[in-house]
């Protein structure tokens, strides 16, 4: 996901064990896993893929291949962009809520079931960021409104977790959403599927960032936030804390974090300290590791050193 704002991303997953250094976590990456291991010594368990709507079913590698490719623990970001080279939107949040994207969600539900291991899904992350096609802050119409987003998110959540037709339809009815006509694979939380609601807290203000987009506890497995620094001492840590505090009954994650064109070891250290001291944090993946990228740690000597010393030792193996 390209950023117009000054941002970068990280992903970690907390295991049940801990040490004096802090909780053990699954460390992750967007980008080149091998390159990042050379830089930091990190054995990335989590690998992130950004998909346009229809990708994995209608074009590109099929879902089954994608999940294996981005294992052992894939993070799948679902956007609404049409197939490249088009820069338009394939579907709106309102259309997803109405069921017009169900075949795509059925395909992903089945692929997660066949994969048989943990998968994270981030539907339409940073919905409050106007650079995103699905954001009301960009379109300002009913098809992209916060209620449309909430309904779309709930439909994605319900269909991906699956169940019998009767079970799924009971959950859809409770949300005022149209029914389906078939059974789905069961992808239970937390062993098989964890769905992340993920605003960009740094552009919000107040005690409950992006609350207008929150679909409700019943449609969310985990809270996420993306954090980036583009200047020394950067990073919206106050807003990150507010988002963490606003959802005390949900596990927390940093699905994207990073450095945009600067070497900021203080920011990396503060991220590490947050993960160590906020025990509900379960996921965090660095954005991004790609030679030549402005986010890549290759040219950021001080930050790379702090990462290797503070974050890499927190790494845990993928969950069984």
Please give the structural blueprint.
Elements: E1 11-19, E2 22-31, H1 33-40, E3 46-51, H2 63-69, E4 73-78, H3 93-97, H4 102-115, E5 119-123, H5 136-139, H6 146-161, H7 165-174, E6 193-197, E7 222-229, H8 237-246, E8 252-259, H9 265-277, E9 281-289, H10 301-311
Parallel strand pairs: 2-3, 2-9, 3-4, 4-5, 5-6, 6-7, 7-8, 8-9
Antiparallel strand pairs: 1-2
Give your account of this protein's structure:
With 320 residues, the chain is of the alpha/beta class. It is 31% helix and 21% strand. The protein has ten helices and nine strands. Strands 2-3-4-5-6-7-8-9 form an eight-stranded parallel barrel, surrounded by five helices. Helix 9 links the parallel strand 8 and strand 9. Helix 2 crosses helix 4, helix 4 crosses helix 6 and helix 9 packs parallel to helix 10. The N terminus is likely disordered.
Radius of gyration: 18 Å
The largest sheet, given as strand count, sense and whether it forms a barrel, is: 8 strands, parallel, barrel
Mean pLDDT: 93
Morphology: globular
Count of beta strands: 9
What strand order characterises the main sheet?
A: 2-3-4-5-6-7-8-9
End-to-end distance: 29 Å
What is the string of helix and strand elements? Answer: EEHEHEHHEHHHEEHEHEH
Number of helices: 10
Low-pLDDT stretches:
1-21
Secondary structure category? alpha/beta
- The share of residues in helices is 25-40%
